[in-house]
Specification:
Blueprint lengths: L3 H18 L8 E2 L15 E6 L4 E5 L10 E5 L12
Antiparallel strand pairs: 1-4, 2-3, 2-4
């Protein structure tokens, strides 16, 4: 039987593979069990992107993720915005 966490992980891996093969550069999601985010990973407001075990994505403060590590499963730095006309 596949768990919710396992399903989310499989979907993330599949989406990453498809987008990477299409030429997109992706920031990799980091498991909270591997490493918690630090202020060095955050944007100017102290936030990173965070995924929940339900598959939802939020911005979250780096100080909040360790407090709710049973809710958040992955995180990554917030990607930089593309400039107008950038076709990446």
């Amino acid at each position: 039987m596949i768990t919710k966490y396992g399903l989310v992980e499989a979907l993330l891996q599949t989406a990453t593979k498809i987008l990477t093969e299409s030429g997109y550069t992706l920031n990799k999601w980091i498991r909270v069990s591997d490493r918690m985010p630090t202020e060095a990973d955050a944007d100017e407001h102290g936030n990173v992107l965070a995924r929940t075990y339900l598959g939802q994505t939020y911005t979250a403060r780096t100080t909040e993720i360790p407090k709710f590590d049973d809710f958040y499963t992955h995180w990554m730095p917030i990607p930089e915005l593309l400039e107008a006309g950038d076709s990446r």
